Amino acid sequence: MLELIAGALWAMLPAYVPNNAAVLAGGGRPIDGGRTMNGKRLLGDGKTWRGTAVGTAVGVALALLLDAAAPAAGDALGITLPGFPINAAVGLALGAMLGDIGASFIKRRSGRERGAAFPGLDQLDFVVGALVLALLFAPDWTLETFTLGRVAVVAVVTPLLHVGTNVIAYWLGVKDEPW
Ligand code: CTP
Ligand code: MG
Ligand code: K
Fold it and tell me: Which reaction does this chain catalyze (predicted)?
C-alpha cells in the first residue's frame, strides 16, 4: 500500500509543481498575445510565456532531483521509487502546463472568464496533459511507471491535493481564487 501510494505521488510530483511555480512566476506577456476567437480571448491573461517557461523548468529540475534521490529515498522507505529519464521529465512538466493551457482554451470557449472555476477540469487537466505528453515523449517509461493502480491513486489523490494547495495559496495571498 505504501509502495503504491508513495510511488504514484513520487512519479507525479514533476507534474504537480509546474502549475504552482507558474502562479508564483506568472505575469508578463500572455501566450495568446490578446487574440480572440468569437469575441472571447483565445486563452486569456492567466496563461503567460513566463509562467509556462518557469513552470516547465521547475518541473524538469525537480524530476532530475527526484531521479538522483530515488535510490536513497526508496531504501529509507523500504520500497522502490521511480527515476526520471530526461524525456519523461520534460513530458510530465511541459505536459502539465499544456493541459492547464488546454483547459483555459476550453473555459474561454464555454464563456468562462479568467479565474472562473470549472470543477473537474481544473483538478485533472494537468494530470491528463502530463500523462499524454509523457506517453508521447517516453512511452516505455510511462507504461512501466504509471501502472493501472498508480493511475487510480493519482485520479483520487490529485483533486484533493489540488484543492488543498490552492486554498493554502489563496490564504497566503499568492493566488486570486481558492481554486
Ligand atoms: N500562470 C501563468 N502561466 C501559465 C499558468 C499560470 O502565468 N501557463 C499564472 C497566471 O498569473 C495565472 C496564475 O498563474 O493567473 C494562476 O493560474 P490559473 O489558475 O491556471 O489561471 P487563471 O488566472 O485562473 O486563468 P484561467 O481561468 O485561464 O485558468
Ligand atoms: Mg485559476
Ligand atoms: K488552471
Answer: 2,3-bis-O-(geranylgeranyl)-sn-glycerol 1-phosphate + CTP + H(+) = CDP-2,3-bis-O-(geranylgeranyl)-sn-glycerol + diphosphate
